[in-house]
Amino acid sequence: LSDVSQIEAVDCASSSFHHYHGMRYGVQVLTNQQGGSNKVQVIRLTSHTAVSLVEPNWKLVFNGNVLGAFLWGDTTDNILLAIQTFLDPSPNPFAVSVKRFGFGSSEELFSYEYRLTLTDNLYVRGFILDGEVPIFNALTDGQISSPFYSPVNNTIRMNDLSVSGKYNLSTGDTTFVVTISVANDSKNFFVAGFSAGDPSIRMSTQIVAGVSYYLRYGVYISFSSALGHGLGDYWQFVGVRLLYSPPLESSVH
Questions:
Q1: Taking CA atoms, which of 11, 14, 170, 180 is between 20 and 30 Å from 190?
Q2: What predicted TM-score, i.e. pTM, was given to this entire model?
Q3: If we measure between CA atoms, which residue out of 164, 136, 140, 142 comes closest to residue 64?
């Protein structure tokens, strides 16, 4: 749809409507897409039981980089500061905005929702994102971020790496970088680097489509294709560690 005014929500009085025990009610009208050049990403936190508001229990990851650890229902100022600290806000300080919705009450399943709006003028450490949609992940303890793919040559794009497992290193986060080290018509190989623990580079391994390769710390990768990758293409992702985990019934995504 185009040229459509924002919907207006009208609160109609009703004699059958009652408040119980301080419950809240309300209506929100939200704009998901503001023109063709803005991207909106939504992070939702829900739980069937109360969540600690003292210890950080989720982390925000951007393109395979940990931006920070946050409280359940943390302020938009804290989240925006973490994003802008990693990005380069100087060309356009208004390229990112964060809004929070929800009250975190038991009637709402202790839920909060964050909406991250990014414009086409978004810079990442001096490099403008030209037509790319950045990947934000909200992760809890032991989870692994989506792999961020960086091709050397945009005409050769084989973004077929998948990540699985549960991250189990107890001492902190680990950044994984998987790089195509050999790319010819008959064989493709990869090497994997790690930011923590034992030897940082493993031996070069030939890619076999559909085979699961164990890296470190409970993390596995696989490729859907054995050939067609670009030499030097790489994927980056991170396994996160937190001292406090939200309840098992909770959801952060």
A1: 170
A2: 0.80
A3: 136
